[in-house]
Amino acid sequence: MKRPHRVHGVRPWPWLGGWAAAHAGLLLVLVVLHQDVRVSGTLCSWTQRGASRVRLLETLTTWGNPWPVTLLAAGSACLALVRRDFTAAAVLVAVPYAAAVSCNLIKTWAGRQRPDLACVSAHADGFSFPSGHAVGVTTGFLLAALYAGGHLPRLLSTTLLVAAALGAEAVTWSRVLLGAHFSVDVLAGQLLGAGWLAVAAVMLSRRPPPGSRGRAGPGVPRSADPAVPSWRRAVQSQ
């Protein structure tokens, strides 16, 4: 019998745990040392040194607006539907939406006002904590990369995930550089997004492989199923 092509991917837990720990550590330092406003003001002041920086950051920050994140989630879900992976399609849409709803609820509960700094370049409505842009790009960019990368060779999967993480960081911190958020706001948003990303990873890992029923014959191990990325098999084995 012909051996099916095995799909590779990146295991999410090591990098997600390290990424979350680094951001949680920075958040803790800023809170304990009471450096949030000072650091935010310093970053915001750097932006005022050139109009070109402001224009670049204003363009960059638009990628964290609701429409780009929604289109990315819809595109990822369409990819899953093409693969007849209906559970993944639902997760790719539902998790970013749930993350946005939870962010708005926390904003209302916390009631933290936006920065009132002389260097503010982007004026935003609503409360400041946590950053909706940070939540949106963390769940949107990284979840899409995680799913798409699960069907790519390991090198391409890693490259895609790193690019998504760097893009999410750039969009997130553009909010501080433009004066729309404090540093703690965006760090909290990233951690909230990471929590929802972990929920999505668990849900994706426990779903049945698309189209696997009745396909594998006797003697074909489950791990050889071409629809099961390696990171999902690692989660299932724990």
UniProtKB/TrEMBL annotation:
Residues 209-238 are annotated as: Disordered. It comes from the Bacteria. Keywords: Cell membrane, Hydrolase, Membrane, Transmembrane, Transmembrane helix. Residues 209-224 have a biased composition (Low complexity). The keyword Membrane applies. The chain crosses the membrane at residues 12-33, 65-82, 89-110, 130-148, 155-174, 186-205. SMART domains: acidPPc. Residues 89-201 form the Phosphatidic acid phosphatase type 2/haloperoxidase domain. It is found in: Cell membrane. The keyword Cell cycle does not apply. Pfam families: PAP2. It is a multi-pass membrane protein. PANTHER family: DECAPRENYLPHOSPHORYL-5-PHOSPHORIBOSE PHOSPHATASE RV3807C-RELATED (PTHR14969:SF62), SPHINGOSINE-1-PHOSPHATE PHOSPHOHYDROLASE (PTHR14969). This is Phosphatidic acid phosphatase type 2/haloperoxidase domain-containing protein.
